[in-house]
Amino acid sequence: MRKQDFQFQLPDSLIANQPSENRTDSRLMVIDPKTQTVGDHHFFNLVDFLQPNDCLIFNNTKVIPARLQGSRETGGKVEVLIERIIPRRYESVKKDAHIPGQDDLSNKDVCIAQLRASNAPKPGAEIILADDFRLVVVGREGAFFKLESQTDEPLLELVERYGSTPLPPYIRRETEALDKQRYQTVYAEKQGAVAAPTAGLHFDEALLKKINDKGVETDFVTLHVGAGTFSPIRVDNILEHQMHSEWFEVPESVVELVSRTRRNGGRVIAVGTTSVRCLESASQKGQLESCCGETDIFIYPGYQFKSVDALVTNFHLSESTLLMLVSAFAGREFILDAYNKAVERAYRFFSYGDAMFIQNTEDSEKETK
Predict the structure, then answer these.
(1) What is residue 231's DSSP assignment?
(2) Tens digits of residue pLDDT in 221-236
């Protein structure tokens, strides 16, 4: 398969630069791969397409203010976009989890980051972010730099104090106060993401209550979305693409909920591609297991889903790995046709845009009419 097989044309005017006034006001395209139908709704209608005994699995990662403005000692400006923070302690991480870099840390916090500067800083270069906040370049791997904090204060606390919301590159405006709230799900809990799990941005507390009142159970996995989610595929043959790695966790409660849902004849509905990647990463031995660690799972057409029956997701970039994932779920030609219909019907695209509810072909007959 070639990356151009997942291409569609999108006018810039349909890229959402601002969130909708209310989270659930977004539009919702409901698509059925079995009947090849495409319906237009609003996101608050999602509850009408759910059934008692279904379950929804959300990603409860929390976006950190990962964009930092600083300078070199010579005065040159440097922008830091943190990919992940590698702390000195791992109390919240299981002992068998693999955290890149944990074996060669000093007694300082370290982060992996992208840097934007007139010239790439070399090892030993110091980046001044505030009087009490400095980072030193200690290494580089490809587009990413390894930076060591020069203070004993936890790096995450410094980032919270001085950073700003890391809006995606296709949102061409400065970060606003509203983004701190709206580029975050209402159920965000575990800090570590530098990009939001955007399908979850459409849910508010009132909708979650309606979903629970209908007899639909919910639970949470965690996947800390990295900046690599926006990295383009640079090879023509997608089988040669190497996915970026992200930290994830699937707790035992989710395993039990999925098992109970299946026994009761319900559907496992993933909210967002990050939830899909969690569930499928934890199902590689054939059934869902509780686990945590790193995943670089790449899902493209031909993949056999093991734990997910339906999917709520936003619209994704042309030729992206996320578009390939949803194409694997519902069929490439059908998905591209739905995307073209979304363009014709002026749906809003990407992080602050509208959403889709996609049903797996084998389960589409369960949809509430």
Answers:
(1) P
(2) 999 998 878 888 999 9
**φ, ψ for residue 254, nearest 5 deg:** -70, -40
- Contacting residues for 344 by C-beta, under 8 A, at least 6 apart: none
61-63/190-193 β-pairing: parallel
For 303-320, how does the pLDDT look when each residue is reduced to its tens digit (9 = 90+)?
999 999 999 999 999 999
Q: Residue 208 contacts by C-beta under 8 Å, 6 or more apart in sequence?
A: 186, 187, 218
CATH number of 3-63+176-359: 3.40.1780.10
Question: So what's the architecture of 67-162 in CATH?
Answer: Beta Barrel (2.40)
d(CA 161, CA 157): 6
Task: State mean pLDDT over 8-27.
Answer: 97
- Return the H-helix or E-strand segment holding 344: helix 332-344
| Phi and psi torsions of 219, nearest 5° | -160, 180
pLDDT, tens digit, 9 for 90 and up, residues 121-152: 999 999 999 999 999 999 998 889 999 999 88
H or E segment to which residue 268 belongs: strand 268-271
Domain spans, the chain: 3-63+176-359, 67-162
**In the structure, how many helices (H) and strands (E) does the chain have?**
7, 17
Read off the tokens for 227: 């900046």
- Please determine whether the domains at 3-63+176-359 and 67-162 fall in the same fold group of CATH: no
- Over 70: is that where the pLDDT of 92 sits? no
pLDDT in tens, 226-279: 887 888 899 999 999 999 889 999 999 999 999 999 999 999 999 999 999 999
Look at residue 37 and tell me whether its pLDDT is greater than 80: yes
The beta strand positions in 73-216, using DSSP E, are: 77-86, 110-117, 126-130, 133-141, 144-149, 190-193
Say if CB 166 and CB 65 are below 8 A apart: yes
